Amino acid sequence: MQHIQIAGIQMSCESDPQCNLDRTIEKIEQAAALGANVVCLQELFNNRYFCQSETHAYFQLGEPIPGPTCQRLQSVAKQHKLVVIVPIFERRAPGVFHNSAAVIDADGSLLGSYRKMHIPDDPNYYEKFYFTPGDKGFLNWPTAAGNFGVCICWDQWFPEAARLTAMTGAQVLFYPTAIGWLAEDKQQYGESQLRAWQTMMRSHAIANGVFVVAVNRVGIEENIQFWGNSFVCDPYGNILVEANRDDEEIMLAQCDLSLIETARTHWPFLRDRRIDAYHDLTKRFLDP
After folding, report:
1. Active site (catalytic) residues
2. What span, in angstroms and rounded, lies between the C-alpha atoms of 225 and 244?
3. Of 87, 106, 109, whose CA–CA distance to 32 is shortest?
4. Cβ 84 vs Cβ 41: under 8 Å
5. What's the CATH fold of domain 3-282?
6. How many other β-carbons are positioned within 10 Å of the β-carbon of residue 189?
């Protein structure tokens, strides 16, 4: 396919994972009826964002990949001929959990999964307590709709992650996300934080000549007001569609993948990379 329609499901979440899954499937089916070829869900889509505290009981929310959630969405993907990006709290083994995303092809097959590489530890984002850093690297999956790479939330701030994913052949970078404001920060820093978030991912699109899809949640959960504003941008960084700030929404964007060739030949950043001079990127910092 050269022309695809991508849907992002921007939702609020309840405390019942099964209810969240049921509501998500309803929205996936609505997206399919609107002509979507690809659907991306938000980070940890079937749970409230539990990382606001360090609570051992939340480990019970983890499940394997493949597992019951993936299997149900594989059936939905096959029925509607959709590629679906499914962010999951993955239970890999006793005591080993990941913040992951499964990639399901349009025939219902499970192509694989990505494990979040960069794990934050900020106030109300205590993810290091729950998640082992990813160990699969940066990946690309050839699907029925195109070549897709996935990173997750905190990964979006790292240009290295976007670059390496694009270098695997990904035409679209998907960023399932759970990001928002703390009440004490919103008035002074809120707009700046949101625009920095968008600017960073738009820059990934430009620097790598790819489409970028960011899917965030909405609603207030404990101490965080999730700011929505899910968006899709093209390889020039132009925002094709942007969801609202407060409400649930099925965001739909028409993407012409042939634009990647045009962008990369007119802005040949990949051609002009000095790969012979970047070896110091593998160091933590360059001391004087």
Report:
1. 43, 116, 153
2. 14
3. 106
4. yes
5. Nitrilase/N-carbamoyl-D-aminoacid amidohydrolase (3.60.110)
6. 13
The C-alpha atoms of residue 87 and residue 44 are separated, in whole angstroms, by 5
Residue ranges for the chain with pLDDT beneath 70 = none
CA distance 9 to 148: 17
- Residue 199 parent element (H or E): helix 183-208
CB 87 within 8 A of CB 152: yes
The pLDDT tens digits of the residues spanning 187-236 come to 999 999 999 999 999 999 999 999 999 999 999 999 999 999 999 999 99
Nearby residues of 44 by Cβ (< 8 Å), 6 or more positions away? 50, 87, 88, 89, 99, 178
Do residues 13 and 219 make contact, with C-beta atoms less than 8 angstroms apart? yes
* Residues 231 and 57: beta-carbon distance below 8 Å: no
Specify whether the CB–CB gap between 253 and 240 falls below 8 A.
Answer: yes
